[in-house]
Amino acid sequence: TNAHIEAVEKARALNAYVLETPEHAxxxxxxxxxxxxxxxxxxxxxxxxxxxxxxxxRDLRTTACSKILGNFVPPYESTVTSQLWRDGAVMLGKxxxxxxxxxxxxxxxxxxxxxxxxxxxxxxxPLVPGGSSGGSAAAVAARLCLGATGTDTGGSIRxxxxxxxxxxxxxxxxxxxxxxxxxFASSLDQAGPFxxxxxxxxxxxxxxxxHDPKDTTSVDRPVPDYEKAIGKSVKGMxxxxxxxxxxxxxxxxxxxxxxxxxxxxxxAGAEMVDISLPHTKYALPAYYxxxxxxxxxxxxxxxxxxxxxxxxxxxxxxxxEATRAAGFGDEVRRRVMIGTxxxxxxxxxxxxxxxxxxxxxxxxxFEDVFSAGVDAxxxxxxxxxxxxVGEKSGADPIEMYLNDVFTVTVNMxxxxxxxxxxxxxxxxxxxxxxxxxxxxxxxxxFSLGEVIE
Length: 453
Ligand code: GLN
Description:
Layout: H1 2-10, E1 17-20, H2 22-37, E2 48-52, H3 79-86, E3 90-95, H4 134-141, E4 147-152, H5 158-164, E5 167-170, E6 190-195, H6 198-208, E7 238-242, H7 252-267, E8 271-275, H8 283-298, H9 316-327, H10 330-343, H11 349-371, E9 376-380, H12 397-401, H13 408-413, E10 417-424, E11 430-437, H14 442-452
Parallel strand pairs: 2-3, 2-4, 7-8, 7-9
Antiparallel strand pairs: 1-3, 4-6, 5-6, 5-10, 9-11, 10-11
Bound molecules: glutamine.
């Protein structure tokens, strides 16, 4: 813990942490020492981790990296983090993220952009770590913690994991409790861990997962000992290669990586099968209707009365307006506007309802493939390696949204997906592959992920 506290202080230029809690960490680490000495250690005893600032932490500032939450200090702890503390983990601080987890580069944070610890060969251009969980990914990659929590609504764990050369899993919807996690799009949001190895990922997920009566969408199923999946044979497994993921303009290095991943799995005894997920091309547009719709509803609670920031106005409506105008950044406002538009009378059927129907079709595509005997699906995690800070945050938001092309389908279908580091781009940046599994079959993803890693 002391070594990590020092590392965090030395790496402030990355802007990975928005709150450092060294005193709290030292106190917790001492308690862990005592537990270890008395033979009473939990499975994560003394392990220093970072926590995305989307998880409520009791008595410690939680902002979702939005001005509107101000200096909000939750009087409660999220279920996922409380399970990590129960098992002995030590919190080093809260990590940076895109405001309300809306973004793919960690540039929409009210605390400013996170800078990746990676650079292109022979270049000093600062790169994004990906988003929205960019602070967690950068912190794990730069060794500013041993693991970190993230959330993934459309790719926010898998894309930053791929950009920073680490492992990130988005578990099945319902596997981890959403209680105490600031909501973005409730039917898509899931928590999951970032780590440097697949094995560490399995260990952290075991602590984070589990049924929680406080989240009615969390599922009452026993949590397996995921670590047992590491090293398990993948012989005879059928791995689907979906043709729709071979998108136009895909860089040859991504195509090559994908092929390489398939070869590794084949060598380990798995069988590759060509599959089709015909509705893939509609996933991104449908996601960017469903997610903003839910966000506009979830963000209605930030009214200047209940949390953090308040700006006075001429009357109560004026106060709401002034608070929301001062508190929300551009991307969040864009989402609220899109969301309220697609939900409004007259447009609901054309946009929201249609997007929900498309979502069902996407889900069915996966169900058909899995019921035909496919055990998991292999795809690239992202359409490119990390890009430069400022490079894609210009006037056209679609540029940024296109980053999610391989990841949003998984959230739309509620499936588990893992990103594992698989190689380097021509200019020396990490590239990741994604494995998509059957509902609640994270174990298969860990077994296969370890083969690729
Ligand atoms: N980049 C996607 C978005 O901006 C996904 C973000 C996320 O998974 N939280 O909506």
